[in-house]
Amino acid sequence: METPRIVDIFKQGQPHQEVVVQGWIRTKRELKDFAFLEVNDGSCLANLQVILAPELPDYPELLKQLNIGSSVQITGKLVESPGKGQKIELKAQEVRIYGNSNPETYPLQKKRHSFEFLRTIGHLRSRTNSIGAVMRIRNTCGQAIHEFFQSRGFIWVHTPIITANDCEGAGELFTVTSLDLNNPPKTAAQELDYSQDFFGRRAYLTVSGQLEAEVMASAFSRVYTFGPTFRAENSNTSRHLAEFWMVEPEMAFCDLQGNQDLAEAFLKQIFKTVLEKCPEDLEFFNQRIDNSVIATAENIVNNEFARITYTEAIALLEKADRKFEYPVEWGIDLQSEHERYLAEELFKKPLIVRDYPAGIKAFYMRLNDDQKTVAAMDILVPKIGEIIGGSQREERLDVLETRITPEARTELWWYLDLRRYGTVPHSGFGLGFERLVQFMTGMGNIRDVIPFPRTPMSAEF
Length: 461
Ligand code: 4AD
Ligand code: MG
Known about the structure:
This protein is of the alpha+beta class and 461 residues long.
């Protein structure tokens, strides 16, 4: 017999129907004449209640073995549930235990656990309601992202994870090497000799797929990447990971205005899809984590984002009725406290800030006519701050050459070549996938929205 997922049983199951269910026991309750199990298979938040009656073979022995955390297969008949809330439950006819669990030592008990504690049991925490709901929403976001781009004719391209360039120029790179670090080859200057390394040069884990996405956009017009990126920035914050997933569309024949329009439509579409497909999980976050989660999602779908320039943002910050830790003046990089003040308190919705000072942004951003600012845009949202960073790219070879360091100019000869052979105005952005999921769920720490977080001093699971 086909084994349905529990989510489908709740949707389609009819009383008297015979089903086979497989999952893990969340709780066991023994009454005088019956026992109840709550079984979960990860397909939805709700557990399926299973009734065990004494007529089952070896009932007393069976009960002893059915413990919280055990994996089981239960064959039985669906019956209407007398309890309120759930309309269907399962009356067991046959129980098979795949793997027993020791209820004394199983780290997940019925009570609520702190997220800090759950991080110490990364191999088991996905069996909790909260991490389970996060991962389902994460999955739906991923699906919505592909659908958004695919329905607009974007080609999904796979950019390399190992690269020789530092796209963002921030020096937050992890080196990839196969040299024997206990006995490495050295140059005359006593530095590591990467010419003898695997790739014959120094290589890194990528911080962004953008430069390669620009190559692909110069052939396919509209492309996107969706892959892991790595940053060795030593920030132990609730919004930074050393390994995170980034979605990066890149569009030829597109300026900053088009870039902003796409990014706004993109976020709206993702929130709309999650509202439609994950109402139960969203409701869970709304009740347990942050009671503004659903209102925020609806606000994003239904209202236009605010759009201002960096210069306007600075003026607003200077007028603010508070002191910031980092003083405000034209030319500073916006800190998270500034970003949050703007999005959370002033505009109370997503805000696109554009035209940042050239000095604080990456070399590839297009220089504006004022010669002071670049055609950059960041999307700032309440609670998180920056969720998307993007720009129109510098497509003029002569201008790009003035913005690039001499070393990068040699290394990125192929990137400059794009400006020699059929250059076009083009734009793109990067969405931090975990920041999106964090924003959507209201989760306080980014480490709890990725299955296996990588942060300074932590890569256990
Ligand atoms: O603003 P960033 O650095 O932009 C880029 O990398 C561009 N190359 C993107 C592009 O134009 N194609 O990073 C993009 C987004 C940020 O807005 C943020 O949401 C996320 O990536 N991000 C991080 N997320 C988690 N942990 C970190 N350490 C992050 N650093 C950036
Ligand atoms: Mg950025």
